[in-house]
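Researcher: Sequence recovery benchmark, item below. Answer with residues only.
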């Protein structure tokens, strides 16, 4: 019997026409795009999602919105076919869509929050100043050591602990070549993440503080499914705990490793990644290759997931 854990990915993997077939074929998905189109007409989500251009679509500030809307539609589509999770975790803004999908908060409040975060990031951080890098085949302790050595010279942080030898870091673009050379000496496998969402970065703490007043006004209920706090790797036990810990994801590193480990310990044998990416499901597969890992990055994958998860 499938014990399903949902993994809500972050932005960064969106592409032109993502969700178009699902949008055209079912009101379940279309309703969420249309809600955002109506409330935020200047964003033009349908045009951007289905016509592009890709360069604009790929931008971090657009990706977090498009990914979130797609995730909410996919969740309801899977639910329609009796594919529901027992546990969920979200990476970066994926966590707020996990909360929305579990009916802890409303979709409308989740989107308002993301649009406010989007505005603050653009105003106070801008774009093209920082770069994200996936570092594989290097023990995280060594990556932490490099970060510590450089922190008195540049802005650099650990964004995510993915596994024993996998992490994501963020740093000022001016240091890109230096950092590449340092990791290449360690025989690292490196992947640039040019469109990664700005979150899990200590310099963003002031933004988290500004968002706090807005977030605490959101009406919250206990989630219908067990949800992990990405910065602790532990399950939320109450609404109060969500209010106290959720915003930490903006400035503290994500513990993907601990989240996946706890889901496995608590019986999950089928992981379904909700969103355009396949990153989290790959991390789950690396942690335990014997577990089924499914994706939802296009209609074909959604249909495959519905078939196999049942």
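Model:
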């Amino acid at each position: 019997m499938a014990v399903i854990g949902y993994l809500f990915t972050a932005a960064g993997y969106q592409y032109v026409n993502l969700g178009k077939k699902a949008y055209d074929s079912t009101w379940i998905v279309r309703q969420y795009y249309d809600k955002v189109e109506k409330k935020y007409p200047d964003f033009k989500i349908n045009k951007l999602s289905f016509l592009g251009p890709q360069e604009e679509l790929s931008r971090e500030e657009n990706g977090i919105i498009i990914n979130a809307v797609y995730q909410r539609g996919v969740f309801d589509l899977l639910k329609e076919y009796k594919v529901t999770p027992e546990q969920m975790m979200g990476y970066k803004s994926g966590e707020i869509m996990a909360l929305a999908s579990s009916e802890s908060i409303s979709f409308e409040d989740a989107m308002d929050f993301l649009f406010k975060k989007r505005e603050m990031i653009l105003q106070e951080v801008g774009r093209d100043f920082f770069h994200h890098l996936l570092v594989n085949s290097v023990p995280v302790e060594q990556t932490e050591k490099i970060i510590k050595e450089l922190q008195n010279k540049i802005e650099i942080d650990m964004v995510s602990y993915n596994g024993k030898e996998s992490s994501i870091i963020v740093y000022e673009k001016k240091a890109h070549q230096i950092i590449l050379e340092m990791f290449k000496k360690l025989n690292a496998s490196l992947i640039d993440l040019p469109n990664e969402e700005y979150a899990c970065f200590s310099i963003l703490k002031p933004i988290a503080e500004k968002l706090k007043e807005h977030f605490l006004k959101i009406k919250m209920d206990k989630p219908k499914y067990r949800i992990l706090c990405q910065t602790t790797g532990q399950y939320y036990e109450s609404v109060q705990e969500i209010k106290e810990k959720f915003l930490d994801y903006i400035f503290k590193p994500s513990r993907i490793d601990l989240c996946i480990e706890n889901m496995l310990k608590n019986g999950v044998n089928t992981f379904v990644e909700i969103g355009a990416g396949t990153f989290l499901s790959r991390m789950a597969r690396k942690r335990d290759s014997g577990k089924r890992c499914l994706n939802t990055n296009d209609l074909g994958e959604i249909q495959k997931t519905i078939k196999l998860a049942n």
